[in-house]
């Protein structure tokens, strides 16, 4: 096949990515200190764990956030490699510094907490959750990570047949439920209320995040027409870790034979793939479309409700859709 050209991110694209990660995490930190902390809301993830520690001991949540992430990063380097961890380490540092900065800002200006008022808990929870979702989305769209649960989910996803988004959801739910037993309250109804607001936050954050990055489960299908199909296919399989099928094609007008590269990837990998194709072949013709669902290796697992054997053929009925094996 010859020597293949491997696309590398340009300096400007990488600077843009780091800027967006910084912007997203700064928005996240501001939202936590302005909307969440004054009402002692508990969110999912390591920030939620840090919040629980702050509410019960008085230790600022950024210290807990940083300490737990250091341990997770050490594990992640061993399990996932340096490539995954570089931007994650940067994100952890930015998030920690931003939380510390806004802590100082709001301590010097305590009246800032009084803008919403003590009886605006629901409004603060809704608006704050939307902003947190936006902040996380900025990171994901820039091929970044917020650390914490992202690391745990990535490790779980590597060894178990559990999607990245579902693993994050499980961990977040456990953190929120644990607040019922850990954070002291005047009565049980207040404890239940904290958990209730925590799950409101979890739902809105995920809806906001999904809206911006088309959901962690959303997949896209590509048809790529290019004379450099081999280099493009090599990049997809080696760097995106996605399967590729080459289809025979013949140009109707030119009569020239070639190959069409077709692949299915996660929606948040689209920008990375398009950027690589642009470097390999700027004249490539690309068709991209959304896929309702993808089942199989690297995507969601087929979940069957029941199996019926007819004429030595197993028919699997799953959510009223028949899949014949």
In a nutshell, what does this entry contain?
Helix content is 57%, strand content 14%. The protein is an alpha+beta fold.
Q: Could you characterize what this model shows?
A:
With 325 residues, the chain is of the alpha+beta class. It folds into 2 domains: 11-213, no CATH class; 219-291, Alpha-Beta Plaits (2-Layer Sandwich), CATH 3.30.70. Helices cover 57% and strands 14% of the residues. The protein has 10 helices and 7 strands. The strands form 2 sheets. Strands 2-3-1-4 form a 4-stranded antiparallel β-sheet, covered by helices on one side. Strands 5-6-7 form a 3-stranded antiparallel β-sheet, with no helix packed on it. Strand 6 (313-318) and strand 7 (321-324) form a beta hairpin. Helix 1 (11-36) packs antiparallel against helix 5 (121-141). The longest helix has 27 residues, at 82-108. 32% of the residues are buried. Mean pLDDT is 79; it is low at 315-325.
Helix content: 55-70%
Major sheet attributes = 4 strands, antiparallel
Task: Report the sheet-strand fraction.
Answer: 5-15%
SS-derived structural category: alpha+beta
CA-based shape? elongated
Radius of gyration: 23 Å
**What is the number of independent domains?**
2
In round numbers, the mean pLDDT is: 79
The tally of beta strands, per DSSP, is 7
Order of helices and strands: HHHHHHHHEHEEHEEEE
> How many helix segments?
10
Give start-end ranges of low-pLDDT stretches: 315-325
Terminal CA distance: 36 Å
Strand order of the largest sheet: 2-3-1-4
